[in-house]
Amino acid sequence: MKTSIAKLAKSKFFVPGIVIGLVVLGWFILILGELGSPKEPEVVEYTANWSQEEDYVIKETPEGTFVENEKAGLTFKVPDGWRVEIGESVGGIADVDFLEKNARLEPEWGFFIGGCAIELEINYNYNEALAESTQGIISYLEQHPEEDEKDIFMDVISVDHHKALKQIGRASSKFGKSINVEILLKEKLCRIRTRPLLEEEERCLQELDKFLETVSIK
Questions:
Q1: How crowded is residue 204: how many other Cβ atoms within 10 Å of its Cβ?
Q2: Residue 154 carries which DSSP code?
Q3: Angle at CA 189, nearest 5°, toward 188 and 190?
Q4: For residues 98 and 102, what is the distance between their CA atoms, to the nearest angstrom?
Q5: pTM
Q6: Closest to 55 measured CA to CA, from 126, 125, 119, 122
Q7: Strand-strand pairing, 94-99 and 154-159
Q8: Could you report the per-residue pLDDT of 85-97, keeping only the tens digit for each?
Q9: Which single residue of 113, 156, 193, 202 could bond 180 by disulfide (Cβ 3.0 to 4.6 Å)?
Q10: Helix (H) / strand (E) containing 196
Q11: What confidence tens digit (pLDDT) does each residue in 20-38 have?
Q12: Which domains are assigned to the chain?
């Protein structure tokens, strides 16, 4: 027996049935929308917390001059006869420059154009993803020593019994190889770098190696 629309409308189940139907329909459309449209990737904001000028203390001792950053647990010996300059660079990062007495800067671009120089900076909250990437490269190079013979321009070294990643840039017609050493200490990162003139490359890279031997890590 057919039921007319008028009789159905008078039924006590008509209005609740419509409401329930709309709710189910809305829920179904929502589910389809979530399945059909791609989700936006989650963006994790990261702001590096770089060392500041006041974080560094210069100490004169009978053994020589030292630069200490207690917050990072790092101490650096100033090479004999060198000077040290601490100042703010681009982005509010405090650079510590260890300069040979005859080191000179090109006035327009700030490149060293004479003598040897070593620059360092410290990040207190190194991003977890970046840390894993750096550690991954170190682990790979340790497991594949044969890569040292290839032109990959990376090496694993030890700085005060801590593993560090040494990145070696290509030389140019004017400048020698650029060296960037990253010492990863839990969430902290200490970056030490230099790029001498081509004619002074060998001597300045030897000075960098000697400097790294004096780094003390707590």
A1: 24
A2: E
A3: 125
A4: 12
A5: 0.71
A6: 122
A7: unpaired
A8: 887 665 555 679 8
A9: 193
A10: none
A11: 454 445 544 554 455 555 5
A12: 53-217 (3.40.1000.10)
